[in-house]
Amino acid sequence: MKILQLQSVCRKKRRKYIQSTPEITAENILNREFTADYFGKKWLTDVTEMKYGLEQKAHLSAILDLADKSIVAFVLGHSNNNELVFETFDIAHKEYPDANPLFHSDRGFQYTSKIFHKKLVDAGMTQSMSRVSRCIDNGPMEAFWGMMKSEMYYLKKFSSYDELEAAVSEYIEYYNNHRYQKRLNCMTPIEYRRYRSHTAA
């Protein structure tokens, strides 16, 4: 190998995560029906990891509406924990108290907790969960993460948490209010929401 100038490259060992026992599970009621005819009918949620500085980690939690593809609420935090997910939900529920959507997530420990289930029940929402190891069951949420990362996150290095947080906020404001989408009749998510609301009235 030395003579041929060959060098082995070892893949990093994946961390072994200890799976927690879910307190609450729900059926995949959404069943990949990724359309909705009005705002607040179906919400998707997820958490994604982002990095800044010297491989320090941040976690972004967000909720997406399937009717207009808008980001209803989001929170960037230092840890992927219950507080991050609960705060995201509380922001969305406070902003839209009359919305009682089908609420879909994966089977992450935050979403399978009794406390989170109670939040949904108290808000009049129905819980739906992806099947085990079926990322496509939450496809539009995964698509948003991919879009955001390719259009913003992968384009630069973030030296600090504050810099990353500002970039995330700026991108989501741009996405909701200024990024035109062909699937929304070439409107932005918020424009499309207003349009649908007007035509429905």
Automatic annotation (TrEMBL):
It comes from Sporomusa malonica. Pfam families: rve, rve_2. This is Transposase InsO and inactivated derivatives. GO terms for molecular function: nucleic acid binding. Residues 18-197 form the Integrase catalytic domain. One of its GO terms (biological process) is DNA integration. It comes from the Bacteria. The lineage of its organism: Bacteria, Bacillati, Bacillota, Negativicutes, Selenomonadales. InterPro entries: Integrase_cat-core, RNaseH-like_sf, RNaseH_sf, Transpos_IS3, Transposase_IS3/IS150/IS904.
